[in-house]
Amino acid sequence: MPELPEVEAARRAIEEHCVGKRIKRAVVADDGKVIEGISRIEFESSIIGKTIVAALRKGKNMWLRLDSPPFPSFQFGMAGAVYIKGVAVTKYKRSAVKEEDEWPSKYSKLFLELDDGLELSFTDKRRFARVRLLHDPESVPPISQLGPDALLQLVNVDEFADSLSKKKTGIKSLLLDQSYISGIGNWLADEVLYQARVHPLQIAANMSKESCESLHRCIKEVIENALEVGADSNQFPNDWIFHSREKKTGKAYVDGRKIEFITAGGRTSAFVPELQKLSRSQSAKISGEVTSAKMGRKTKRSKKTCVIEQGTDTEDESDSGNDSDREGKKVKGKSNRRKHESSKSHAKKKRKKTLK
To answer: An example Gene Ontology cellular component term from the record (predicted)?
Structure first.
């Protein structure tokens, strides 16, 4: 999914190559899911003849300011991308257009031809992007609901540390919250946490001052380093966890260290246990929870064994999590079976006597 670096790279390319030029022709896709709230014909007629004055961005959202409203506004979704013919913009794994593909791409949602012949296309293969025509993009959701931009509006380190000290939630979950800080998505959060040596599940309020300072520094450094190479992931530094975060468990390593995967902030998260450790108090708490979870799994297996041994078809026993209770139930089951077999034997002997 395109995150702040990819969207900012697209914005910079438009700013460099398209600002000051007039829109000569526009072709909007007949796709009501992506082109939101306006007809294709109305969209095209509203922007043809206008000049692109600026390309702006907040978080993972971008919009073009024309010489008069309304303005095209873009949410990139899972695979949205901007391409300018003959100009390298940004590359990431899920982008749709390749150099050898037809132009404009069949996935193009908005195609613009400018007065100097330059051509621009916003594409989306997976159709999770949104393209709207708005009079004031900053005054309506989602942009109006965004927190400070991670590149342009990041607070100073002291304010950052103070803010974290009030948040009793996991740090990765907090970084993904666009109302807290905008522009950071899943891969970017994993990278800054790895570089800062902070565990994804670490409670923000329990972070040390040093960890807060390191995280603040790494947010800026990772974004700036990504932008230095135009957000081309193939050129990201070799020591980034990014290059291995989509490999299979057991085969993912960075700098010779094993990468593990957990769920944090509702997303699959890559981290290096050797370097990213929880605080002692939180580590002890999670260790206890994991032990309880393991006991729960063992209890369920034992419960099934108990059912088989008692020869019943239902599982009506409570999950006590206590080994001695389970063993007692097994013994009781065997005892009941022996009593049942003894009763059957006694009944047979009684019938034989009656026959005689």
So the answer is: nucleus
More confident residue, 281 or 159: 159
Residue 188: both structure tokens together: 């970017």
Task: Exactly one of 60, 91, 125, 329 is catalytic; name it.
Answer: 60
Over the chain, what is the mean pLDDT? 84
To the query of whether residue 8 is one of the catalytic residues in this protein, the response is no
Number of Cβ atoms within 10 Å of the Cβ of 91: 18
What is the model's pLDDT at position 347?
54
pTM of the model: 0.78
Would the CA dihedral through 39, 42, 46, 52 be positive or negative? positive
Query: How many whole angstroms separate alpha carbon 93 and alpha carbon 109?
Result: 19
Neighbouring C-beta atoms of residue 89, cutoff 10 Å: 23
Question: CB atoms < 10 A from the CB of 38, how many?
Answer: 17
Residue 255's CB is within 10 A of a number of other CB atoms, namely: 12
The CA distance from 9 to 26, in Å, is: 23
pLDDT at 321 over 60: no
Any idea what the Cα angle at residue 329 is, between residues 338 and 292, rounded to 5°? 160
DSSP per-residue string spanning 180-218: TSBS--HHHHHHHHHHHT--TT-BGGG--HHHHHHHHHH
Which member of 3, 6, 8, 44 is catalytic?
3
